[in-house]
Amino acid sequence: MPLIVKDYVWEETEAQVFITVPLKGVKANKVDILSSEEYLKASYPPYIFECLLVAPVDDVAGTAQVGNGAVLFRLNKKEPGLWGKLQSADAENKELMRAKREEAIDKTQQKLQEALKEKDERKREHEKLAIQEMMKIEDTERCRIEKRKQEERDQATAELEAWKETQRRLAEEEKGRLLKEKREQEKAKQKEDKERKRRKGANIFMEAADEMGGNQKRQSGKIEVSFTERAFPTPVRESTKPMEDEWLQKQAEARQVADLQDEDLTEEERNPQFLRDKGNSFFAAGNYQAAVNAYTHALRLNPKMHSLYSNRAACHLKLRNLFKCIEDSSKAIDLLSPPVPQNAASRVKAIVRRGTAFCQLELYVEGLQDYEAALKIEPNNEKLKQDAEKIRQIIQGSAET
């Protein structure tokens, strides 16, 4: 049974009530306080203080302080006036006291739930504000990046236009030079024809004179023979002439450009060599997607240029488009046949790019096969040897695991 505390002290004014309850040697951290508008309780086992107030108080504005060996209640009356006594006449009614106690407990729990709900709402509001702030920061950063990209695009466009203007100027100068050269050649030809006619007329008179004189002269002539220089430095006895001839024929076909009927394209944009060089410039500047676009347009004009496929494969490798890299590298390798010394370096580049894409897809066996194929072409390439050895170690490590 708890011990009821009755030696409490209380005072009142017109607006407030002050109640001091002694703790009787109990530590302050063991005090449990419960209050409502009409009910007060301070429990600190084995003692308990309960009070059913004469009139209601403002439970929200009231305070309870624990310290200095006592619990001090400071309560604000709802209606000003002097009570004359603290306890209600119904304080002896145990059923009523229990009902007031349960009502106070329910209100306290309700207040705790409302406080938790308010705390959660404040937390969600803070999180919402934090998310909004992060979105603002991201939008600012996105705008900055987009602005920088636009500046780079504008710069690349300006450089392209300047390059086009330079090419147009050079083309005009070349055109003027060719016209001048053609006029000079025509003048020289006219002069030569005139001289030939003069000599021919003179020869006719000489032949007529010889016939009249009965003198028959035998004329001697001179035939000049020129030999076409071989396109390969190897001697005929050491070369594979059919393969070399096939390669030369494929190169000649690769130089043929398709005629695209598009009025929006300039003369330079119909030139695959120009587009390839421009793609190389974009690649060197790190603008790999622009380089892919340039090479793709060039391939519409000339789908037999192996360098376009190989260069586009390098771009796809940078952009992590690994399957496209493998596809373009394979097309370049197909166009680089038959294998002759003149296309060896290009074959090595295409094979190594495909092998690198295989390795990045963790297809190390296929990648090693390509690196070994490249080493057969350039057996003294130390970098290829080192890379092939690293791939072998990866494959062996996977097999041991």
Describe the structure.
This protein has 401 residues and is an alpha+beta fold. It folds into three domains: 3-92, Immunoglobulin-like; 115-199; 261-400, Alpha Horseshoe (Serine Threonine Protein Phosphatase 5, Tetratricopeptide repeat), CATH 1.25.40. It has nine helices and eight strands. It has helices spanning 94-213, 241-254, 272-284, 288-301, 306-318, 322-335, 344-360, 364-377, 382-400, and strands at residues 3-4, 9-12, 16-22, 32-35, 39-44, 47-52, 57-67, 70-77. Strands 1-6-5-4 form a four-stranded mixed sheet, with helices on one face. It has a four-stranded antiparallel sheet with strand order 2-3-8-7, with no helix packed on it. Strand 5 and strand 6 (47-52) form a beta hairpin. Helix 6 packs antiparallel against helix 7, helix 7 (344-360) packs antiparallel against helix 8 (364-377) and helix 8 runs antiparallel to helix 9. The protein is elongated. The chain starts with a strand and ends with a helix. The relative contact order is 0.04. The model is unreliable at 204-238 and 257-261 (pLDDT under 50). This is Dynein axonemal assembly factor 4. Residues 173-195 have a biased composition (Basic and acidic residues). InterPro entries: CS_dom, CS_DYX1C1, Dynein_assembly_factor_4, HSP20-like_chaperone, TPR-like_helical_dom_sf, TPR_2, TPR_rpt. It is found in: Cell projection, Neuron projection; Dynein axonemal particle; Nucleus. Keywords: Cell projection, Cytoplasm, Neurogenesis, Nucleus, Repeat, TPR repeat.
